[in-house]
UniProtKB/TrEMBL annotation, chains A, B:
Annotated InterPro entries: DNA-bd_HTH_TetR-type_CS, Homeodomain-like_sf, HTH-type_TetR-like_transc_reg, HTH_TetR, PsrA_TetR_C, Tet_transcr_reg_TetR-rel_C_sf
Binding region for DNA: 31-50
Organism: Candidatus Accumulibacter meliphilus
Record flagged with keyword Cytoplasm: no
UniProt name for this protein: TetR/AcrR family transcriptional regulator
Origin organism lineage: Bacteria, Pseudomonadati, Pseudomonadota, Betaproteobacteria, Candidatus Accumulibacter
Keywords: DNA-binding, Repressor, Transcription, Transcription regulation
Listed PROSITE patterns: HTH_TETR_1 (PS01081), HTH_TETR_2 (PS50977)
Single GO term (MF): DNA-binding transcription factor activity
Length: 259, 259
DNA sequence: GTCTATATGTGGATAGAC
DNA sequence: GTCTATCCACATATAGAC
């Protein structure tokens, strides 16, 4: 498709600038003029190379997501090959899914924190073309990991696992995207997550590492939390269904199975 | 300020329609013309009553958030009065913070799921005026609840608690906002979370209840998860710091204290 | 492939009559 | 308070010369 050197450079430069500006100002808040100016290409270049602004956004994502999701599938393949039929540990599954993503944040050649923030911010956008794009882009990975979770925690209702996967995705997306709420939260001592005024050079790689380190235990804790009382319906008395969590011990069927 | 009946009705109608459309199409994806047409008022009415489109969005939120955050502060006041100086249980704090929010979803006179979805989708938006608006609107509540968490879990590093509060906010926002990702996730048996084609009348109140019921245990599990290994640095050997979670027992200092 | 010029649409905001 | 008419900035996209 693209065979000339200049052509390739132009495409990549547009994608790089678009990625950055979409992250900083949002899709609708970023005009093609700003993008082409920033990339030092002509205004018409975007339409020539990508066809439209919508297609440009999709390409910004496809460039990173195809790698990410291939990597995720590969990681799961390896785990399942090792396990040889035995169910995986939840922590392994989460590591393969979220760890792979978070590693992007440490590698600017994969998009770095800029791409991760863009991803987090875009996942909740209501525009139809974005949603259908993500739907098709993620379908296979989600299905595979869903099944892996089902196998890993066979005693937990599947619907419950789907919800929890959803919660985990949310915690991750938001943790990455929400520089701002976090700034409100802090107002205090948070190491060197120092806003983004003079920052962004404040070592995104260190931030990505710390984020991964803190996020993974949280996700695992949420995934393996006791089931909501209404779903237990076995051991607990139906007395006060909304406030019976004084000593939330993890039940047996939520413990990982050791291979 | 507003003293005539028609005036009041006009304002409220604009706010109602704007809330719905901002939720469905996003802020930048919703023109004032669509809003005023939907509300059956004149195009100039928005600028007359609110001053600008930005101010309109802020007013849409202020109408709901002032109630919500007042309620949250009140709930915390009650808990602290009951406890009489003793630290609260984490589950109580989460119930006061997230339970109060989720109850909005069950009451359409408080905005219902429409407002919750709008809130979730807007929290990650990069536009500056929105972020500063939320920052000031949330500052007091966040500060109070942060301190409550610090007191409830005094042995957990404060920075860690701030991160986890952030993760919890994310899981919640995203769970509410992400009708779409969830649709991808499911493709299957999720009770009656049936897209939004013919739905929205599919009993938002039931959805809100189920969401709360499933979300709260997840959040509590995440909040009380074992600390990341690099922060423990006491009992565990520093051998393999990233993969030492075969049996994630909750350490003592993460257990709730009983009053 | 790149660039200029432009077509065509839409946005938010406002002045001024009623 | 409401409404009409309009201003003006800016968006995406494309036609056609180079």
């Amino acid at each position: 498709m693209a065979d000339q050197k200049t052509n390739h450079d132009t495409r990549e430069r547009i994608l790089d600038v678009a990625e950055l500006l979409f992250m900083a100002n949002g899709y609708e808040g970023t005009s093609m003029r700003v993008i082409t100016t920033g990339a030092e290409v002509n205004l018409a270049a975007v339409n020539y190379h990508f066809g439209s602004k919508e297609a440009l956004l999709c390409e910004v994502f496809r460039r990173r997501l195809s790698w990410l999701n291939r990597e995720r599938l590969h990681a799961l393949d390896l785990l399942e090959a090792e396990a040889a039929g035995a169910p995986l540990k939840p922590s392994q599954i989460l590591e393969a899914f979220f760890g792979t993503l978070l590693r992007i944040g440490e590698d600017s050649s994969l998009g770095g924190m800029t791409f991760l923030r863009l991803l987090g911010r875009t996942l909740t956008q209501p525009a139809e073309f974005i949603r259908t794009f993500f739907a098709s882009e993620y379908a296979e990975v989600i299905e595979r990991y869903k099944q892996a979770l089902f196998s890993a925690l066979p005693d937990v209702p599947k619907a419950e696992l789907v919800w929890r996967l959803h919660f985990m995705l949310g915690a991750m997306s938001y943790a990455i995207a929400g520089t701002d709420v976090l700034r409100v939260l802090t107002g205090c001592e948070l190491g060197d997550w120092a806003g983004e005024g003079a920052a962004d050079s404040v070592d995104d790689r260190a931030l990505a590492r710390r984020l991964a380190q803190r996020l993974m235990p949280f996700l695992l804790g949420g995934l393996r939390a006791p089931l909501p009382s209404a779903l237990q319906s076995l051991t607990s008395s139906p007395a006060s269904p909304s406030e019976g969590d004084t000593e939330p011990q993890t039940p047996n069927h939520l413990q990982e199975k050791q291979p």
